[in-house]
Amino acid sequence: MKKTPSAIPRVNPDPQPDPSPPAEARGSSPSLWLYAALVFFAVLFLSLAFRMDHRDWPGFLINLSSEIIGALIILILVDRRLRDRDVRLLRGFKATTAMTLRRMVSREMRHIVSYGRILDHQLEAIERPYYLPRPGLDHLLEEAKTMGFILTGASGSGKSVVLQRFTRHQVEDLLMRPGTSPIPVIVPSKNWKDPDVTEILKHTIQGYHNVPGRLIDKWLLRGRLMCIFDFVDELTVNPDLAGKIDDFRRSYPLNRVIVSTWPLRLKSDCLQGLNRIDVPAFTADEIRRIRQMRLRASA
């Protein structure tokens, strides 16, 4: 007799949690133009102070200039400090000098990098301390990501873990190539409250970082987004969602769409053009190895 999803043994007692935005979306870091303006005015006030013959103004201008320099130092130390993760990312950058300068100056590049770093941090926070590599499956996902795909698998097969690790790899690529790499947006089922797919994507992105809506509209038109819908069993319960995704794909055909759900039977005209990739159930040997890794991690 064929096993139903509920009858398949679960390797992990608890389901993999969904990524969620931080409590407060972080704002943009200070622009380099702000630093340049502060330096310019500090130098201007100093030069005026040494040229003026008035008794009071030179001292005032020197004090004002010193305050500006102090504020500049605070901004550099507090808002532009390098964390350990940032240092590792900088060491891994293979971008050219031109791309690096563009990333430092361009407001759009700063938004992309800030969003990517926060999403990476949130995905890292829910990552399990153990993982069984599945290179064959990872290879299939990499090959299919250009055209998009549907990832299916029974409950407990590890779909969410596979999808989140796939998303982290895309985020790492985005941080290395923010000007060209697709921008991953992972939408858990709990975020599906608005019937408009574009509004859901905007709300999800802005939950991680305060990206202007107009900029997200530009990304949609350019095809910069990799839309990852982790629906679990929602497409089985509400098949109309597939139609809404198809409407979105017709409106923004350049963006990549990835859907994760239980094994399902869709209408023949739904989600056409997306490759279907089945997550195989764990073998008895794989279940044994995962349990051993879980015991070592909890020891």
CATH architecture tag of the domain at 11-24 and 120-298? 3-Layer(aba) Sandwich
Give the fraction of residues assigned to helices: 40-55%
| Helix-and-strand structural type | alpha/beta
Low-confidence stretches: 1-9
Shape: elongated
Q: Supply the number of helical segments.
A: 12
Question: Quick recap of the structure?
Answer:
The protein is an alpha/beta fold and about 300 residues long.
Structure description:
- This protein has helices at 32-51, 57-78, 84-92, 97-105, 107-125, 135-144, 159-176, 197-208, 213-222, 234-237, 240-251, 284-298, and strands at residues 149-152, 183-188, 225-232, 256-261, 275-278.
- The chain has a domain at 11-24 and 120-298: P-loop containing nucleotide triphosphate hydrolases (Rossmann fold).
- With 299 residues, it is of the alpha/beta class.
- The model is unreliable at 1-9 (pLDDT under 50).
- Strands 2-3-4-1-5 form a five-stranded parallel sheet, with helices on both faces.
- The protein is elongated.
- It has twelve helices and five strands.
